[in-house]
Records
---
Amino acid sequence: MTTRIEPRSGIAFTLDAGDILTVYDPEGGQVSDLVAYDRDDPREVISNGRTFDLEETIHLTAGNRLWSNRSNPMLAITEDTAGLHDFLLTPCSVDTFKHFYPDKPVHRGCFGNLAAALEPYGIEADSIPTAFNIFMNVPVGQNGKIEVLPPTTKPGDYIRFEALKPLIIGVTACSAYASNGGSFKPIDFQIDSGR
Amino acid sequence: MTTRIEPRSGIAFTLDAGDILTVYDPEGGQVSDLVAYDRDDPREVISNGRTFDLEETIHLTAGNRLWSNRSNPMLAITEDTAGLHDFLLTPCSVDTFKHFYPDKPVHRGCFGNLAAALEPYGIEADSIPTAFNIFMNVPVGQNGKIEVLPPTTKPGDYIRFEALKPLIIGVTACSAYASNGGSFKPIDFQIDSGR
């Protein structure tokens, strides 16, 4: 049973250790920003820097783990039909809409959607880290220059995670024009108990 | 007048808006991890993701700014004789020493040095973000693989920042073997009032 995240929205939920979370791109070409916090102490949060350090790559896929600011593994990527994700960029927000799309209506973006979804768990907006941006296509040029290109995902592509400890998860269907090729699409996810 | 940061140690201090901070590599081949917080509300902190987003590059040098998690510019890089720094990796720590150097004595690393230096400012270890790693040489391969190579700095190379708001700064002389080519060296810095 999958749950749908409507275009330009977000949701938060908890996982037990061992639970399996699968995030689908039902139509292809969409991005989903994911953040994860320790459920018992949300000051522990996924960290792109610790993950890059310990996985020795910025390209995370099946076989890699996402690590926390306390150097604990939070999520293992167990399957990945997409193979291309980003862990460099922060969620789109009111400020990034004003900066990158000055002629478009301002949207609270994935940042605002995550902040609203995480508030009931006592997590402040300031505690939203660089997200793991599922399906996001951000090539790094030889000179370090980065671009945001449309995702290469096809309908039904997915990434599967195993929770390595009890977690609070925030996840979105991305709101920005560039990251999804100019259209806004839903994201589906499914949780399977590890027990 | 420069101040010396002894090998494998760290320090914290405040800057006023407009102050100029210069960080020198006096011997060449050394790394210095820098973090910055808003002085009035340290929940605002430098963010590699916001910086990559808004500067559209992972290679930061003169002309670039370091941005906060609230999308405000914190520091402008005004001069840079080194030209090569890293904003991908987190400070070395007890955990990274155990992971990368299992046969060497464990050291609290830049992370522990920053945590101790920032504690009097009410900043917890959990609030230490991915640091701006001055002079650190971390090439990203085409497949996303990252390496930590010795810095290319020569004695006297420096980077100069202008504080764009009142800040708390933490800065180290790096403690890890790989990042400085296996030796431990000091770092010098100087603060010039912007007034």
---
Amino acid sequence: MSFPKIDDTHDPALTSWVSGADGHADFPVQNLPLGIFAPKAGAPRAGVAIGDHILDLAQCAERGLLPEAVRDAVRGRTLNALFALPSADRLALRRSLSRMLSDGKHRESIEPCLFAAADCTLHLPAAIGDYTDFYVGIHHATNVGKLFRPDNPLLPNYKYVPIGYHGRASSVRSSGVPVVRPRGQRKAPDADAPTVGPTGRLDYELELGVWIGQGNAPGEAIPINEAAGHVAGFCLLNDWSARDFQAWEYVPLGPFLAKNFHSTVSPWVVTAEAMAPFRIAQPARPEGDPAPLPYLWDEADQAQGALSLTLEVCISSAKMREANMPPHRLSHGPASNMYWTVQQIVTHHASNGCDLRPGDLLGTGTISAAEREGYGSLLELTEGGKTKVLLPTGEERAFLEDGDEIILRGRAEAAGFASIGLGECRAVILPAK
Amino acid sequence: MSFPKIDDTHDPALTSWVSGADGHADFPVQNLPLGIFAPKAGAPRAGVAIGDHILDLAQCAERGLLPEAVRDAVRGRTLNALFALPSADRLALRRSLSRMLSDGKHRESIEPCLFAAADCTLHLPAAIGDYTDFYVGIHHATNVGKLFRPDNPLLPNYKYVPIGYHGRASSVRSSGVPVVRPRGQRKAPDADAPTVGPTGRLDYELELGVWIGQGNAPGEAIPINEAAGHVAGFCLLNDWSARDFQAWEYVPLGPFLAKNFHSTVSPWVVTAEAMAPFRIAQPARPEGDPAPLPYLWDEADQAQGALSLTLEVCISSAKMREANMPPHRLSHGPASNMYWTVQQIVTHHASNGCDLRPGDLLGTGTISAAEREGYGSLLELTEGGKTKVLLPTGEERAFLEDGDEIILRGRAEAAGFASIGLGECRAVILPAK
């Protein structure tokens, strides 16, 4: 398994001459996430986050400051071309950026390519060819399963198949784009027929997003011991869900309009290379669980295929913002609560010859912890709307209301290394049209 | 409802100076379907089929022969830009092409832009942003439902919701690209655990494909009386399916690897304008069925929202081809066996604000007739593999075998008009890797 290796770019003692970068919660010089940004009155272009600044990669390329292998690839309006390169080229870019942003001798040539992040707009990092959402958060699957089937929450295929389904690529939006409350069909359990209207059970789902790097040829599988080489990086993903639409529409072909109105991703791609220090063993399967089938089994993947990443969900209601209250944390828990590793997801997806392409987005599915404090959706926190969540204003929530803003965050930590973050994934709910 | 109107381009007396076009089974001058083709040793470009020839639209544009509104749009390697134009512009293109290809005075200027279709390769007509597959063939839904739930084949939502799910855009291929038999997980009903291997239940699905023209803004619905204006045209779609994978993986989130290894479309887009004479009333709902909800109801759509189109499936086994036998017809039936119109599908899809984009592909789902001769999949024809189909060679089929080729065809007919066809959608099965 070709996981990126730890090198001197991960050195916790490394500092940057960019003011505010050292000790930055998300983007110290050890992170160097990639994204697409537009400065005021400028066109979208590739950039890298460093503290509260963004380095313009296109401008750096024009000035001949980047490795030759990536120069053309960073000039587009998306990162797809950069994702399509061998990961060795992105590693070369990382090493070059690390040097330029840490060693003061580069300051003069680099500083003109820096923008204050606050003055920039962040866009989707890639043109998403296909977006696939998985269901590997086993506690989420169990919690949701219990609502429908108390005695038998997990279906028989769950521990053999990394369950996934295709989502909607067109409606994936970058952090900050408001979510319009969707309209649709829902049927009350005791009603004879459905009615149409704004969803009354709007929910978030806390997920990890995976950006695909190099793809596979149509008809060719991706062996599990090569899967890590196809992952360009990670982001946060909020898979907004209309639970009432979902319950009515989802048999027999799965969720559709309950999900495809809007999905939000954090705009920065934290590269697989940046995550090298944060690899941990995949949690052991409970005794009695079947071993993964051979095509999904790799010893190295089990040893270091999971991520030491803590995820959290916060809410900020309109009333809270009026009262200048900080966002209220709804839940937090480790991203390792996944029954399958990212590599197993990738290999399973391509196992029938399905071609993944650079810039494709995979979602893990909601990642919940075993305990209530780590539940990754309101559906779980409120037991399907029965137990309301109390906000600091005294407001209660069974599901989301107009004006509510949901903020996802993720933080990678490992002893002896500088902590890095995924940045924010946020969006506010607007009333239905 | 703004359905395209019948005009003099549909005149059955219209003839073309292109040899072989008059009386052509699929592409007489009344059809003029759009596609992307590559001549020998040439790059892919936009073209229009006329008889056994293809007119190079990019070359016509360069020579100033096309309406100004479409000149830039036909110069790309896909039809997406042409689909993004108002349908009035595609109508202008159609009228111009009809004049140039029927009136002999244009022959001298046009003839150098013609290629023999036999010398050309046909590509996917558009870069597909998202591909959605529906389930509106009510006899198919009933037949398949019976296999699982003999007493209650249709689920309660079927007559309210045009059921659909997202498919895989990356694995949609043009006619002629062989299908590699996929490998995957399947579990025999009496087995304790699944095994992995090539599918033993490979099937086709006969569907109509719909190419989206102008899209909608994110968050904005498409009213039913405007839906027809968002349809650029039609094709045939074979939604290849691995039934053993499907049965094992599809709960609770729907089909995934059972479908996303390959889907085949016919390469020519028969435009909504070309189909104007072939509009018929939507079949009346059986007595007792609920009326469509208001957002899906439009009188004009009910009056002329269906298509007078006969679809057929043929098979050609390797043995049949060795013996020079013609393909054997497995089934045929009318495309109007849809519980929802194409317009209702489009409106439902966007009803939650989901944005459709030019070049998106919608599949209707398998279209079966009520009678066995019109069943659109082997799953139905063989009752889940129990009743084998006999081929003229004496071979039998429960499901598809390596070397089998499946050919879909579609023909539009209406009294007083020249019949037009959708062209062929074909692919042969290769052994698993």
